[in-house]
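Handout, section B. The chain below has 79 residues.
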Amino acid sequence: MDFDDSDFTRLVKATREKFGVSIAQAHDMIFADKEIRRLVALRINRSQECRKQALSDIRRNGDKSRFVREGDRIRFRNP
């Protein structure tokens, strides 16, 4: 499955519209799916724009971020 930056943006928008939720709630719903987390993790470590957004999330949310940086890689924080 090919998954690019704009696909994720569209997925978030569609989730918000369908369920009437905030961006953070849409992210929670989307990231509950293991396959989506895998695809997003790949994008974060391959796409400069995705990486930038994940690093911003880490800076903004600290220990509450969904992501953690391990050397040069970024991964989802274990629940």
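Note. Strands lie at 67-70, 73-76. Compare this with the example in section A.
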